[in-house]
Amino acid sequence: MTRLICVASGKGGVGKTTVASNLGAALNEFGVSTLLVDGNLTTPHLGFHLGVPLYPKTLHDVLRGDATIDEAIYVHPSGLKVIPGGISISDLKSTKPDKLAEIFLELLGTHDFVILDGAAGLGREPLSGLEATDEVLVVTNPDLPSVTDALKVIKLSEEFGSHILGVVLNRVTGKLHELTVDDVESLLGYPVISTIPEEPKIHESIASKTPLVMLAPETKAAIEMKVLAAKLAGIEWTPPKPKEAGLLARLFGFLRK
Ligand SMILES: Nc1ncnc2c1ncn2[C@@H]1O[C@H](COP(=O)(O)OP(=O)(O)O)[C@@H](O)[C@H]1O
Ligand SMILES: [Mg+2]
User: Fold this and answer.
1) Any residues with Cβ below 6 Å from ligand 1, and which?
2) How much is the pTM?
3) Three-state secondary-structure class, residue 6
C-alpha cells in the first residue's frame, strides 16, 4: 500500500522542505521505498536540498503533459527518489496545480511512501497538495504566527477528509518566550508527534545538499527526524544518544549553573 503524505504548514519558512527531505532520507535509510515530490510549483526548493542537478524533466513538465512521471524521477545517490519542480520563469507562468491529484493517483502502488513537500499559504497551490494526498503532517514553529496558520491548514485538511498524522514542532530552542508542546497541542487539537530542536548544522546540510540525517546523524535534530520516520513507518528503532557536548562546553555549562 502506498501512503500519500503531504507535509503542510500554512506559514512559509517553518521547515517543511527540511522535514520532508530528511524524512525521505531517513525512510530510505530504513529500506522503505520513498518518493519525494516538490509541491511548491511557484518556488520549488526540494531539488536544492537534495542536490538534484538541473534536471531535464520536472514535475512541471509532467503537469503540462510534456513528460511521463518516470521521466521526471531523479534518483539521489542514496537511492531516495525525487520529483523536482521546474525553476524557470516559464515553468512559473505555465503551471496549473489542478492535475496534481491525477499524478498522485498514478503513483499509487509505486512506492511505500510518496511524500509531497507542500507549498506555503492557503491558496490553490497548497490546497491542491492537500487534495492529492490522504495524510497530512503539519509542521509549525513554537510561535503564534506559525501555529495560527497551522490551525487553518488543519481545518482545511479536515474539510478535505485527510487524516492528520500529527504536528511536527520544529526549531525548538526551549527559550521562555516559545510556546510549549502543551500550548501547541491545546491550540491545534492534535498531538505533537515530533519535537525538532534548532540545529545550526541544518544550514550546512542545505548548503552541502545533503539531508541532516546523512550529514550529521549524531545531532538531536537528525535523531528526532529518524524517530519520526520510524514512527510513521511502524519500524522499531532504538535511537543512539545525541552526541555529548565537548568537555569545554560541559565545563562552562556547569560553571554557568
Ligand atoms: N530545526 C532547524 N534548525 C535550524 N534551522 C532550521 C531548522 N529547520 C529549518 N531551518 C531553516 O529554516 C529555513 C526554512 O526552512 P524550509 O525547510 O525551507 O522551510 P519551508 O519549506 O517551510 O519554507 C531554512 O533556512 C532552514 O535552514
Ligand atoms: Mg519549502
Assistant:
1) 9, 12-18, 45, 120, 170-171, 196, 198-199, 202-203, 206, 221
2) 0.93
3) strand
